Amino acid sequence: MFDLTTRDIKYLSGVGPQRASVLNKELGIFSFHDLLYYFPYKYVDRSRIYRIREIDGAMPYIQLKGEILGFETAGEGRQRRLIAHFSDGTGIVDLIWFQGIKYLIGKYKVHQEYIVFGKPTVFNGRINIAHPDIDLASELKLSAMGLQPYYNTTEKMKRSLLNSHAIEKMMKSLVGQLNEPLPETLSPALLAEHHLMPLTDALMNIHFPSGPDVLRKAEYRLKFEELFYVQLNILRYAKDRQRKYRGYVFEKVGDIFNGFYSRNLPFELTNAQKRVLKEIRRDLGAGRQMNRLLQGDVGSGKTLVALMSMLIALDNGYQACMMAPTEILANQHYETIRELLYGMDVRVELLTGSIKGKRREAILSGLLTGDVQILIGTHAVIEDTVNFASLGLVVIDEQHRFGVAQRARLWTKSVQPPHILVMTATPIPRTLAMTLYGDLDVSVIDELPPGRKPIATIHQFDSHRVSLYCSVRKQIDEGRQVYIVYPLIKESEKIDLKNLEEGYLHICEEFPDCRVCKVHGKMKPAEKDAQMQLFVSGEAQIMVATTVIEVGVNVPNASVMIIENAERFGLSQLHQLRGRVGRGADQSYCILVTGYKLAEDTRKRLEIMVRTNDGFEIAEADLKLRGPGDLEGTQQSGIAFDLKIADIARDGQLLQYVREVAQTIVDKDPNASLPENEILWRQLKALRKTNVNWAAIS
Ligand code: ADP
Ligand code: MG
């Protein structure tokens, strides 16, 4: 069968090679099919005609019917414009154009009946519509207009006259050529059971809906399908892996774990820590490989949970390994864990890029014999030269700095893939986690250890520096330490940002008796580590830094986090930065410094930060404000970007629902062989082929 939709877009009438190349470059549209799946971002009701006297300043697009009373030109140069006075008998509207003036005067006639369409603005008591769409009333069939689709376009497209209207016309011509239905992409059983519109109807109606009800049904069908295949893909991989690898079984909790629990554990576990440990223990004993994402706000005590999980591995005769994204963090984990295990007969080693020569060799051979039971390190631990006797569990700290490919390399380190525990302090809303890491089970530590004082967050304007420095001075006099964070290292001349270098000099002048260290992303790692070390050891009272300090550094004595140009940071980043303080028993502060002029979004972000310390609440708010594309962690997976119609922030419920649908199918048809699902498996295969990100899921 010849499939029309595979045809090159340049052959669509009204396109041609030049426009085709713009569509290729700007929107990635190469075929009829690609265009058909370029969905409108909104619809405007064109079935209704408004009266001029009904117009108020807050209206979206509206439609008027009337005649032009006369033309007028005004302004000079770039301000030159054509004004047409348009009336429907209830009032007058000024139609305004800044381009094509000569052409327009020739085109539109006085005292003809027109339908005018556009967005009204009210200015000095006069109503304007700039660059309206105009049609002869006699030529426009209103009843047939229904909802008009609007398509996103780019600046480059507009220069080639490819505006939303032009896309709409192409789409009309494309849809007009579809004489027979497209091959269905969901099975008849799914369509029937979930009352879904057939594919072809859905596509027609998503572009040219005859009314709101039909539109809703079309949207539902397409969103359902999109989310369904995302989930089917993830769950299918998970199933394959489950069948391929049985996973080590850690049957018992033995002397090492119990000894630690009764003698070394310096405090009572929080209820959340207990619950999560139970979840992990169940996984480890279940006879399938664990893939668990452990979410918990900064300071919630994930390290301890990780350590106790590793001790279970040791109790069962296996080794464990923990990876951190930076050398400093690896060091910190090493120190912490050595301290926690004090007096116990467990061999822990640290392996980073800077550990070389004899020491390195000793560690490597200790790993091969099994003498080294816990290895802590950076990426260095996944190098080819590092081999274990029996690696049973891997803990990865701060997930988003570790790519999927790096996780996959762990597979090769032992006979069976080890159990994996991924820890992240960037809380991810549940819906997003399901899409991104659908094959990971999620545990949440949603409780801080007792006795922590919530960090007080304050929003302060730039101009109140004197009082700001007074507070800093007070904290330093009490022996505390202070972070000052800047968004960028070097800024373009245009935007007046205090850049880090300037800030550093300024702070040195303000606090001449203090030691100030400086850290930014362009430094050599050794230099950076040395500066960080000054702060960790307490020699420096103030650290001036860019966001490199975001991840993990633990300096309980630091009590103030000042974030300069806070308007330049996203919510989750602000929250991460704030988490650097509040680690000791004293009251800590986070001060968000901004200029006076703030965009609405920024104001909201700052309000949320001031209001709450709850990472999950912040993550949800972030998802709503920014959409999933910008969230940390999504870049790496790319999946959230590929969604054409579903929206993870808004369609969370549907996502949950289709996940269950997909799960049922995978469970009932583990070999992907049932005839009733043939369409589904074929479609999944096709999608994996065209979608790079889909194949990369671990
Ligand atoms: P995270 O890695 O989740 O940011 P950490 O594991 O670094 O947090 O823990 C933060 C601090 O809280 C550490 O100093 C740790 O010793 C302490 N801590 C962890 N669990 C508890 C607990 N149950 N009670 C008291 N303090 C705890
Ligand atoms: Mg940590």
TrEMBL record:
<dbReference type="InterPro" id="IPR012340">
    <property type="entry name" value="NA-bd_OB-fold"/>
</dbReference>
<keyword id="KW-0238">DNA-binding</keyword>
<dbReference type="Pfam" id="PF17191">
    <property type="entry name" value="RecG_wedge"/>
</dbReference>
<keyword id="KW-0233">DNA recombination</keyword>
<keyword id="KW-0067">ATP-binding</keyword>
<dbReference type="Pfam" id="PF19833">
    <property type="entry name" value="RecG_dom3_C"/>
</dbReference>
<dbReference type="Pfam" id="PF00270">
    <property type="entry name" value="DEAD"/>
</dbReference>
<dbReference type="InterPro" id="IPR033454">
    <property type="entry name" value="RecG_wedge"/>
</dbReference>
<dbReference type="InterPro" id="IPR045562">
    <property type="entry name" value="RecG_dom3_C"/>
</dbReference>
<dbReference type="GO" id="GO:0016887">
    <property type="term" value="F:ATP hydrolysis activity"/>
</dbReference>
<keyword id="KW-0347">Helicase</keyword>
<dbReference type="InterPro" id="IPR014001">
    <property type="entry name" value="Helicase_ATP-bd"/>
</dbReference>
<dbReference type="Pfam" id="PF00271">
    <property type="entry name" value="Helicase_C"/>
</dbReference>
<comment type="similarity">
    <text>Belongs to the helicase family. RecG subfamily.</text>
</comment>
<feature type="domain" description="Helicase C-terminal">
    <location>
        <begin position="471"/>
        <end position="624"/>
    </location>
</feature>
<dbReference type="InterPro" id="IPR004609">
    <property type="entry name" value="ATP-dep_DNA_helicase_RecG"/>
</dbReference>
<keyword id="KW-0378">Hydrolase</keyword>
<keyword id="KW-0234">DNA repair</keyword>
<feature type="domain" description="Helicase ATP-binding">
    <location>
        <begin position="283"/>
        <end position="445"/>
    </location>
</feature>
<dbReference type="InterPro" id="IPR027417">
    <property type="entry name" value="P-loop_NTPase"/>
</dbReference>
<dbReference type="GO" id="GO:0003677">
    <property type="term" value="F:DNA binding"/>
</dbReference>
<protein>
    <recommendedName>
        <fullName>ATP-dependent DNA helicase RecG</fullName>
        <ecNumber>5.6.2.4</ecNumber>
    </recommendedName>
</protein>
<dbReference type="GO" id="GO:0005524">
    <property type="term" value="F:ATP binding"/>
</dbReference>
<dbReference type="InterPro" id="IPR001650">
    <property type="entry name" value="Helicase_C-like"/>
</dbReference>
<dbReference type="GO" id="GO:0043138">
    <property type="term" value="F:3'-5' DNA helicase activity"/>
</dbReference>
<comment type="function">
    <text>Plays a critical role in recombination and DNA repair. Helps process Holliday junction intermediates to mature products by catalyzing branch migration. Has replication fork regression activity, unwinds stalled or blocked replication forks to make a HJ that can be resolved. Has a DNA unwinding activity characteristic of a DNA helicase with 3'-5' polarity.</text>
</comment>
<keyword id="KW-0227">DNA damage</keyword>
<keyword id="KW-0547">Nucleotide-binding</keyword>
<dbReference type="GO" id="GO:0006310">
    <property type="term" value="P:DNA recombination"/>
</dbReference>
<dbReference type="GO" id="GO:0006281">
    <property type="term" value="P:DNA repair"/>
</dbReference>
<dbReference type="InterPro" id="IPR047112">
    <property type="entry name" value="RecG/Mfd"/>
</dbReference>
<dbReference type="InterPro" id="IPR011545">
    <property type="entry name" value="DEAD/DEAH_box_helicase_dom"/>
</dbReference>
<keyword id="KW-0413">Isomerase</keyword>
